[in-house]
Amino acid sequence: MTRGEFEIIASIARRIPAPGRDVVVGEGDDCAVIRCDAREDLLVTTDLLLEGRHFLPDAAPQDVGWKALAVSISDVAAMGGRPRHAVAAIALRPQQTGAYADGLATGLLRCARRHGVDLVGGDTNATDGPAVVCVTLTGKVARGRAVLRSGARVGDAICVTGALGGSLARRHLRVTPRVAEAAALVRGGRVHAMIDLSDGLSSDLGHVLDASRVGAEVWADAVPVHRDARRASAQDGRSALAHALDDGEDFELLFTVPERRARSLAKSGLAGTPVAWIGRITRRGYVLRDREGGPGRAMIRGGHDHFRSP
Ligand code: ADP
Ligand code: MG
């Protein structure tokens, strides 16, 4: 029997020996957190994009290069950090060594410049299989201030930036990492937990609940449904809400804060991006309610798993 993505990761994680004392957070969050000096901690994350899986052979190489870095920047943002240095490892098919390689570099460097990231190296290889682009990114965060998945507290409000679902059809390559939003959020203090939405809300909020050992209820009428989710719904008959809850690659931020903070964020937004207050952290269970106080049913973790989805 094949295992799912998270079973494989868990089986590796179980075998990792106790890390050195400079490892503040190891496997299990959006980035690792490494203690390096008295002022700042170092963040590290890596993401691999595979042709035919994360992008199609006819995708514009500029978009692929942009996305390869942007998804890692999203992970640094989700820790409340500032992206800093990237290395890029690429494997290209023989047909991709010319204009394609140039386009990839253009997209990568454009994303780097936009976010103040220095590209400091990488590795380049030939392949007979699909192309691979793997970016490893560092970031910085004030010492001890990284926002973890594990900090959610019972009674916290659950919030998300932007609108969710249906990204696959049109916008999944044009990732806009929410760096400014995360920076504005952590400046205001009292952010207990945060994750970026890469696998889908139902699955990614599940990671926060597991890490924090708490439960949650989500209010369906409060979930911000993207117009692309409605469009996808019209095409495949699944509800727009199901798309918003289960589709991956939104790269929005999900975070938990005290209710008072959520109330003001829902009015003000963050750095020009809307914020929706979609539910509450509870002692246990994982429930989807029609609305706050309304009837509920078990939330299914329907998000993306590379080994389970087509
Ligand atoms: P994200 O979507 O934030 O990039 P993932 O879902 O890819 O995170 O990974 C979840 C966690 O598992 C992360 O902390 C990641 O570092 C860890 N992880 C994933 N693959 C491996 C691996 N092969 N070895 C060790 N840790 C891994
Ligand atoms: Mg992440």
Offer a concise description of the structure.
The protein is built from nine helices and 13 strands.
What's the order of the H and E elements?
Answer: HEEEHEHEEEHHEHEHHEHEEE
User: Which class do the helix and strand fractions yield?
Assistant: alpha+beta
Spatial strand order of the main sheet = 8-10-7-11-9-12-13
- Averaged pLDDT, please? 96
Classify the helix fraction into a percent range: 25-40%
Stretches with pLDDT under 50, minimum 5 residues = none
What's the main sheet like? 7 strands, mixed
Q: What fraction of the residues are assigned to beta strands by DSSP?
A: 25-35%
Determine the N-to-C terminus distance: 17 Å
Nearest-angstrom radius of gyration?
19 Å
What characteristic shape results from the CA principal axes? globular
* DSSP, total strands: 13
Number of helices: 9
Ions, cofactors and other ligands present here are: adenosine-5'-diphosphate, magnesium ion
3D architecture notes:
It is built from nine helices and 13 strands. The chain has helices spanning 5-15, 61-77, 99-114, 167-170, 179-187, 201-212, 227-236, 240-246, 259-268, and strands at residues 23-25, 32-35, 40-50, 82-92, 118-126, 132-142, 157-161, 193-196, 215-219, 253-257, 275-282, 286-289, 296-298. Helix 2 (61-77) packs parallel to helix 3, helix 2 (61-77) runs parallel beside helix 5 (179-187) and helix 7 (227-236) crosses helix 8 (240-246). The model has no long low-confidence stretch (mean pLDDT 96). Bound molecules: adenosine-5'-diphosphate and magnesium ion. Residues 30, 75, 78, 195-196, 198 line the site of magnesium ion (MG).
